[in-house]
């Protein structure tokens, strides 16, 4: 559905969001892992300050995005097209196939005759004279 979002639709449909959308789930998973590692590394009490908090936040975000990108390049990108050979399309029956616009135009040009059925030879009309 397009055309109903206005400014929000055009902003969120921007191609600038595509790299983030490819990494979003991986960022979520690695973010949890990075937070867990950072919390378990500390062995002593630390002094809390705004600077330390911001340093910790930005380092976690940077490490998370870096790990997500590396694993995307190593795992997801090469195996991304692997499912297409598994999804082979089975041939459909002729009754299920849709006619293209060219086929429809050809049918209209043939004076309403159905070209799928064999044409029966026309019998000549014979007149008999009754006596």
UniProtKB/TrEMBL annotation:
Bias class Basic and acidic residues marks the residues at: 113-125
Give the stretches traversing the membrane: 53-75
Q: Does the keyword Protein transport apply?
A: no
Record's keyword terms, sorted: Membrane, Transmembrane, Transmembrane helix
Biased-composition ranges, Polar residues, are 86-98
Q: Does the keyword Ligase apply?
A: no
What are the start and end residues of every segment in region (Disordered)? 85-131
User: Compositional bias (Low complexity) at which positions?
Assistant: 99-108
Name of the protein this chain belongs to: GL16634
Its ancestry begins with:
Eukaryota, Metazoa, Ecdysozoa, Arthropoda, Hexapoda
